[in-house]
Write a structure and sequence with these properties.
Elements (H helix, E strand, L loop, with lengths): L1 H14 L3 H4 L16 H18 L1 H4 L4 H22 L3 H34 L2 H11 L4 H15 L5 H16 L3 H19 L7 H8 L12 H16 L22 H20 L5 H22 L11 H6 L3 H20 L1 H8 L6 H15 L1 H11 L5 H13 L9 H9 L6 H5 L2 H18 L10
């Protein structure tokens, strides 16, 4: 939903740009069609916005978010094909533009598919459930659970995605204090902020950081310079909210047994870490795309699943661990949603809208303010389309600015409950205890954390100014 909103706003901005930016189609370059003021171009924008509105209302309509954006992608590229034919654009040029989007999506798809497969495998082996069970049985009071779940979310999300992390920590909160609405609401807000902040300083923590890394804008280890700004983003609102958490201890629940991980769980975790090392090594030392390292890492899981099957002692341990079922259980709705977003934004960019948007923002208010605004926008529309649009526009920015937009796009979604997948998922998990308005009440405090993270970045990462990506 967040992703949807972000993309829609980006396009809305281009629709309502000042008149002088609409004035000429001569603004087009060899990379765009320059049809932004044509009927077909405006139709594409409206069609995309309508599709995005369907995505935003998924919670109520129960129409999967991938369906409207995939349709929009097809319609937009049909219109692009008509425009290209009218202008006499060579078929090779049209195909080159389409191939660029295919390459972007294929790399993202294969990378995420491996990560999702590992996460599904760890879930099936009860890795996350065992962690939840351990925390529940420790008997911590509400304030301790508030901090433990927040800190764990901050440090788990750089490895797992923020959605998985939020659902795991949310399950802990509901198990410990589900009968206390105030505790649940505050803890869920804390988890959303922590998961988004933790994902901002690791290429594996958020789709946007992954996109920036795969695009070669930053090296793998440069992202860790965002650690201090990310900590500030989490700690500032957490410290303030701490005093609102009830000074109570949860009622212990009788009869719930400790969950133990299934055979092979720890080894799958180890293979996942080895896969991450492989992907980083492919990029850092061999200059190969990270998805190649991830696909190589998938083979580790393939071979280990064969081992589990051959050595399984009963139906619960080995014979039913089918690696292809884990792949099949990947979030295909999300993966296809990414397809729709990438091709929608790519098509609108080829028509010429991203060029106009770049002129109005990065060429108008400057890189820093444009990147800060991108983070705020990500609270409404989702950071993936925002970041893909920025990468497609490719404004001339040094490494300091690329780190800034990585930070703001990653943590800006915490400003609203609908600003990230983590927030949307927890609203569904909370049984009405965590809502849009309960989150909105704390938005001013979260905004303080957003401002503190930006201040921290300017304070500790100024050495990156003037250094441009290779």
């Amino acid at each position: 939903m967040k992703l949807l909103l972000k993309n829609a706003l980006l396009v809305l901005l281009t629709v309502f740009l000042p008149g002088q930016l609409w004035a000429s189609e001569a603004a087009s370059t060899s990379h765009t069609l320059g049809y932004t003021s044509s009927f077909i171009g405006i139709f594409c924008v409206i069609f995309f916005i309508v599709a995005y509105l369907f995505v935003m209302t998924e919670e109520f309509s129960h129409l999967r978010k991938s369906k409207p954006v995939v349709l929009a992608a097809g319609v937009i590229w049909v219109m692009v094909g008509i425009i290209a034919r009218q202008k006499g654009v060579p078929v090779e040029e049209l195909h080159a533009s389409l191939d660029h989007n295919i390459k972007e999506y294929a790399e993202l798809l294969m990378f995420l598919l491996v990560a999702m497969t590992y996460i599904n495998s760890m879930t099936e082996r009860d890795v996350f459930e065992a962690l939840r069970s351990w925390l529940v049985h420790k008997g911590f009071n509400y304030r301790k659970v508030f901090w433990i779940t927040g800190i764990l979310a901050f440090f788990i999300s750089p490895i797992a995605d923020n959605l998985t992390t939020a659902l795991l920590m949310g399950a802990v909160v509901m198990a410990v204090g589900g009968d206390n609405p105030k505790f649940v609401s505050l803890s869920f807000i804390n988890i959303v902020i922590a998961a988004n902040a933790g994902g901002a300083f690791s290429p594996f923590g958020d789709i946007t950081t992954l996109m920036v890394w795969q695009a070669g804008k930053e090296t793998f280890f440069n992202f860790f310079h965002l650690f201090i700004p990310s900590v500030l983003n989490y700690l500032v609102p957490a410290i303030v909210m701490h005093f609102a958490v009830p000074k109570l201890s949860p009622t212990k629940k009788e009869g719930e047994e400790r969950v133990k991980m299934k055979r092979g769980a720890k080894r799958i975790c180890l293979f996942f870490l080895l896969t991450i090392v492989t992907a980083v090594s492919f990029k850092q030392f061999l200059h190969l795309p990270p998805f190649m390292g991830m696909m190589t890492g998938l083979s580790y899981l393939f071979i280990f699943s064969y081992f589990l099957k051959k050595t399984g002692r009963d139906e619960f341990e080995g014979y039913y661990f089918n690696i292809f079922k884990k792949i099949g259980n990947a979030e295909w709705d999300t993966l296809l949603f990414f397809f729709g977003v990438i091709f929608c934004v790519g098509g609108l960019g080829y028509i010429g809208y991203l060029e106009l948007l770049s002129t109005a923002t990065y060429g108008g208010i400057g890189n820093s303010w444009a990147n800060i605004a991108a983070g705020i926008l990500s609270a409404i529309v989702d950071n993936i389309p925002v970041m893909f649009a920025i990468l497609t526009m490719n404004p001339p920015m040094d490494q300091f600015q690329w780190l800034l937009v990585t930070l703001t796009a990653g943590v800006g979604g915490s400003l609203l409950s609908v600003g990230s997948a983590a927030g949307v998922a927890l609203m569904g998990q909370s049984q009405g205890k965590y809502t849009f308005f309960s989150h909105l009440k704390w938005t001013p405090v979260i905004a303080l954390g957003y401002a503190a993270s930006i201040w921290g970045h300017f304070l500790v990462n100024s050495a990156f100014k003037g250094h441009f990506p290779h």
